Amino acid sequence: MTDTCIIGAGSSGVTVAKSLKDAGQTADIFEKGSQIGGMWRYENDNGQSSCYASLHIDTSRPNLGYSDFPIDPSLPDFLSHAQFLGHLEAYADHFGIPEMVRFNTAVTSVEPEGDRYRVTLDTGESRDYARVVIANGHLSDPRMPDFPGQFDGTAIHSHHYRSADPYIGKRVLVVGIGNSAVDIAVDLCRRAEHVTLSTRRSAWVMPKYLMGVPIDQWSGFLGRKLRLPTPAVRRIMAQLIKLGVGDQRRFGLPRPEHPMWREHATLSQELLPNIGHGYIDVKPNVKRLDGTRVAFVDGTDAPYDAIIYATGYNLTFPFLDRGVFDPDLQAGELYRRMVVPAHPGLIHAGLVQPVGPTIPLVETQGKWIAALASGRMTLPPRAEMDREITAHRDYQRRTYLDAPRYALEVDYKTYTRQMLADMKAGQAGT
Ligand SMILES: Cc1cc2nc3c(=O)[nH]c(=O)nc-3n(C[C@H](O)[C@H](O)[C@H](O)COP(=O)(O)OP(=O)(O)OC[C@H]3O[C@@H](n4cnc5c(N)ncnc54)[C@H](O)[C@@H]3O)c2cc1C
Ligand SMILES: NC(=O)c1ccc[n+]([C@@H]2O[C@H](COP(=O)([O-])OP(=O)(O)OC[C@H]3O[C@@H](n4cnc5c(N)ncnc54)[C@H](OP(=O)(O)O)[C@@H]3O)[C@@H](O)[C@H]2O)c1
């Protein structure tokens, strides 16, 4: 009997399905688009992909592959979105996943009924399951800032940015300094007339390469090969990065007030040189939109033809009633970052923001979910789940900035170790 439903066939849904299959379990996967790949399929017909034409993955090839399906070593250090999609398709085909997917079918509601879950599809059909794996992606609903005033030029969110073509010869303001903002500013800057990057809090900008080696391979070498503890790895990496980048204030980018590892890394090899060549300038936060001009909080203002808001994403689960799961209150309140404690058959996959890559981390989540579904591992009682959540929230507050952007933050190594220990013990712990 198929007792697991998976919502979504992006990288998260695919790897969870693969682990379930390995564990002898079947699953119904519902995917609203016509193909697998989710976010990594450029112009996906699900209307949900935030992929732009120049997007390259920011984890180097050896750290990105699945444990039993490595990435073709002839591919470059940092795969393009099309190359990663090709790899994901090969992985899914090899393990027979597309046959498990019902494409062009959206889940419209999931309702708990006793200890089971009624799943309704956009065809009107309803089915019931012991568990529902929620893998619908969390980076597609644009979060827009609410600046006072009105802008008369073009304004879009980075979710809708595809290429520099519409911005040739234009003056463009990019708001934010996450990975989307810096990728887009760099993509635009040689073709637009000028690009400004506006940031309210700044960020540590880290290069993709240090001494010719991808930066994540340095941390991998220190942590895994030399077996140094995470704090020591971070201290050494911070010194290496400071040597490689120098003082970012030289480029007009304020030093963040927090230490380097208390926030999500912004990775870019090209941002600082492009600032240094005068293609991009840096401004603080926007104070006011004023027709064709934008005023900044430092008292300066400038004219712009377009604004791109690279201001991140809202967490949205339109098929779940907020009484069942309210993402604004409960996204950081999941047991082992997956299980909704009040409805333990509702299990999120991929709802994490690791220091390190998301994609292989969700492979381990998939194995954990499969251990649960096949009865090889059990969940602890509710009180213990709540204790684990409190302990994780305390750890987050001690380790990262206490801001909404960090509610999903996990440490790759620690979190992987916890999931592996649960599976080994056959009982998920605290
Ligand atoms: C611009 C950008 C760059 C990124 N770069 C990296 C990177 O370099 N490295 C990294 O590890 N991560 C990166 N990420 C994070 C990335 O999103 C995740 O790593 C991962 O690929 C997301 O996979 P997913 O399956 O969870 O979500 P998605 O890829 O979004 O897939 C979700 C799927 O669910 C389907 N779906 C949604 N709702 C429904 C419904 N109601 N019914 C049926 N189907 C539904 C969608 O159609 C979609 O196919 C990046 C994200 C963004 C936005
Ligand atoms: N190449 C790649 O691999 C790549 C490319 C793009 C994205 N990604 C990933 O995709 C995810 C989303 O990235 P993202 O860059 O789109 O979003 P993000 O990481 O959430 O960054 C959003 C940025 O917008 C700023 N911001 C938010 N609200 C604002 C407001 N009201 N006013 C002013 N500034 C505001 C934030 O500043 P504060 O810090 O002050 O909140 C932050 O600088 C991340 O995991 C990222 O790593 C990866």
TrEMBL record:
Protein name stated in the entry: Trimethylamine monooxygenase
Family listed: Belongs to the FMO family.
EC number: 1.14.13.148
Key word Oxidoreductase present: yes
Domain of life: Bacteria
Gene Ontology MF terms: flavin adenine dinucleotide binding; N,N-dimethylaniline monooxygenase activity; NADP binding; trimethylamine monooxygenase activity
Top EC class, one word: oxidoreductase
UniProt xrefs under Pfam families: FMO-like (PF00743)
Key words, A-Z: FAD, Flavoprotein, Monooxygenase, NADP, Oxidoreductase
